[in-house]
């Protein structure tokens, strides 16, 4: 009922309910052109009245317990809203008072002005009603805690809220209001229990296992980058990307880049492929890319053998045939005959005819066009990137230096798992916004979307950017964060825990492709637990295979 009344109060303009209203400034400009000085003065008065009306908005919001965040699609319904006092950031959670004088301690505390607080489905946030500016939200996590009472807050009408990133103390107008807010905050902990309970979270991760989720894998940069571009074109609300490769801002040292693109907080591309120069590649792994000059005059082994058969150079024939057999066997082509007769030339020619189809099965590549333009023709072993603003110009000599192929993988996840990826990004964004750009409105605080809206979580248009149908999987986000990256009070090593448990539980084989896997073999103390669990797993195995690639 109050919702309907609130809507009526916003649109009730008397007899002038014209939906095509002009701003006072537009009215003033029109009348200045026509010489209507009196109307200009009236427009100025109207502007002042609108400013006065803005002050009444907060009164209406307080009366109906609603705000600009109340009816935004995707942000869940509000559990509780209202004005509270927030204690300034001089509160230390380790401080203990030897005695408590209720009113004296309360008067000595410094509080900020009244702020409008909103409890959502997985966080609490305060906003400025006049400007609709969102402040730093407190997300529910495994350290989320609600404390009341004089021993925790020095008075009976305050609440202390803790999480991994900060401590917030809010003061209510009465003890009754304090009890009501405390109850809603306790309900918040129960509603967002997926982020609170360590028992629900495998590997001690910040998120639980999400069952029956959609996911799709990409091998190499071609299909991945194409899917990212197409998905960006259908974004409706927001795009989250980390890292941001911008050459104009200079070189960013110690940047913890995570290679993610999140669209509308329900489509998340993550993995090992950077969206930068030198990462686009396909299954052909081209070493040379010269455009029209790609047509070389090299002859195949079969052409060389045929020429030497004509000149009766038997030794060269035998050498070429043996080399061909070995090459075919390595490539999995076992159809080459190895029974060679040395006494008749016709046998050699017959063998050549049988071998010839092997080379014809090799796919023909388009060598008349360049695939790697400018800086995309890269070789990090030869030279690092430079002059990236001129991205169309080569920085290495193509005719002398081969390009370095790039083989990697990535995936896209949907729904709740994508929300979890976005939640991780929001944690990092907000803490750095608070530290570096607190008063810069160009960098707003971000709010995580709701997990309850099944319709909003669904992604029905995956065919617009995927080549195949996604799979159903049980997915979980794991990570490595700490005081340095997200300013948490403790470190989370869920990705490290995942490696250890999966290696220990391996049954058949283990494949690891990681350029950062380092262990000092000579040291008696093993600091790298992954290396230690690998050793223990091999030691425990009764039967295992060793593969050498030379």
By CATH, the superfamily of the domain at 69-200 comes out as Pleckstrin-homology domain (PH domain)/Phosphotyrosine-binding domain (PTB)
Radius of gyration: 33 Å
Q: Using the 3D structure, state the CATH architecture of the domain at 69-200.
A: Roll
Separation of the first and last Cα atoms: 76 Å
Order of helices and strands: HHHEHEEEEEHEEHEHEEEHHHEHHEEEHH
What spatial form do the alpha-carbon principal axes imply? globular
Question: How many β strands by DSSP?
Answer: 16
Stretches with pLDDT under 50, minimum 5 residues:
1-21, 90-108, 325-342, 355-363
Quick one: CATH class of the domain at 69-200? Mainly Beta
What name does CATH use for the topology of the domain at 69-200?
PH-domain like
Mean pLDDT: 77
**Most strands sheet:** 8 strands, antiparallel
Give the helices and strands, then pairings.
Blueprint: H1 2-11, H2 24-33, H3 37-64, E1 80-87, H4 102-108, E2 111-119, E3 123-128, E4 133-134, E5 138-139, E6 145-148, H5 150-153, E7 158-162, E8 167-171, H6 175-191, E9 210-219, H7 221-233, E10 239-242, E11 260-263, E12 267-271, H8 301-310, H9 314-330, H10 345-360, E13 409-414, H11 415-436, H12 454-457, E14 471-475, E15 480-481, E16 492-493, H13 494-504, H14 529-540
Antiparallel strand pairs: 1-2, 1-8, 2-3, 3-4, 3-5, 6-7, 7-8, 9-13, 9-14, 10-11, 11-12, 12-13, 15-16
Helix pairs in contact: 2-3, 8-9, 8-10, 13-14
């Amino acid at each position: 009922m109050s919702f309907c009344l609130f809507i009526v109060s916003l649109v009730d303009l008397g007899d002038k309910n014209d939906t095509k209203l002009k701003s006072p400034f537009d009215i003033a400009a029109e009348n200045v052109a026509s010489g209507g000085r009196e109307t200009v003065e009236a427009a100025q008065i109207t502007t002042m009245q609108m400013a006065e009306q803005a002050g009444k908005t907060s009164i209406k919001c307080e009366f109906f317990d609603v705000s600009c965040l109340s009816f935004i699609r995707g942000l869940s319904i509000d559990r509780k809203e209202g004005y509270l006092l927030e204690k300034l950031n001089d509160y230390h959670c380790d401080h203990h008072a030897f005695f408590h004088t209720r009113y004296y301690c309360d008067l000595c505390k410094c509080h900020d002005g009244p702020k409008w607080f909103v409890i959502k489905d997985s966080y609490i946030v305060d906003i400025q009603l006049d400007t609709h500016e969102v402040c730093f939200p407190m997300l529910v996590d495994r350290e989320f805690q609600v404390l009341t009472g004089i021993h925790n807050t020095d008075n009976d009408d305050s609440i202390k809220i803790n999480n991994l990133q900060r401590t917030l103390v809010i003061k209510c107008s009465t003890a009754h209001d304090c009890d009501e807010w405390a109850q809603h905050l306790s309900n918040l902990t129960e509603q967002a229990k997926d982020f609170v309970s360590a028992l629900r979270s495998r590997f001690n991760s910040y998120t639980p296992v999400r069952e029956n989720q959609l996911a799709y894998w990409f091998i190499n940069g071609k299909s991945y980058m194409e899917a990212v571009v197409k998905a960006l074109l259908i974004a409706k609300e927001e795009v989250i990307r980390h890292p941001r490769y911008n050459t104009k801002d200079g070189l960013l040292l110690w940047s913890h880049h995570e290679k993610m693109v999140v669209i509308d907080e329900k489509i998340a591309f993550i993995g090992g492929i950077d969206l930068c120069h030198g990462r686009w590649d396909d299954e052909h792994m081209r070493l040379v890319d010269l455009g029209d000059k790609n047509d070389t005059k090299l002859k195949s082994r079969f052409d060389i053998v045929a020429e030497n058969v004509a000149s009766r150079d038997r030794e060269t024939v035998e050498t070429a045939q043996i080399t061909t057999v070995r090459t075919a066997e390595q490539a999995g082509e076992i159809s080459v005959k190895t029974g060679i007769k040395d006494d008749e030339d016709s046998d050699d020619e017959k063998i050549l005819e049988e071998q010839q189809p092997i080379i014809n099965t090799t796919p023909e590549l388009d060598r008349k066009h360049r695939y790697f333009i400018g800086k995309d023709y890269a070789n990090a072993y030869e030279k690092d990137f430079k002059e990236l603003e001129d991205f169309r110009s080569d920085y290495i000599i193509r005719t002398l230096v081969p390009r370095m192929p790039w083989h990697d993988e990535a995936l896209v996840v949907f729904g709740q798992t994508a929300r979890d990826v976005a939640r991780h990004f929001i944690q990092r964004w907000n803490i750095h916004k608070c530290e570096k750009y607190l008063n810069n409105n160009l960098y707003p605080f971000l709010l995580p979307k709701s997990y309850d809206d099944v319709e909003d979580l669904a992604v029905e248009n995956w065919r617009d950017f995927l080549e195949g149908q996604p799979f159903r999987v049980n997915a979980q986000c794991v990570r490595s964060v700490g005081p340095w990256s997200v300013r948490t009070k403790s470190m989370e090593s869920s990705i490290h825990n995942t490696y250890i448990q999966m290696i220990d539980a391996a049954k058949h084989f283990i494949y690891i492709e990681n350029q950062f896997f380092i262990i000092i073999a000579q040291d008696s103390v093993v600091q790298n637990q992954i290396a230690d669990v690998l050793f223990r797993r091999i030691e425990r195995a009764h039967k295992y295979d060793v593969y050498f690639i030379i």
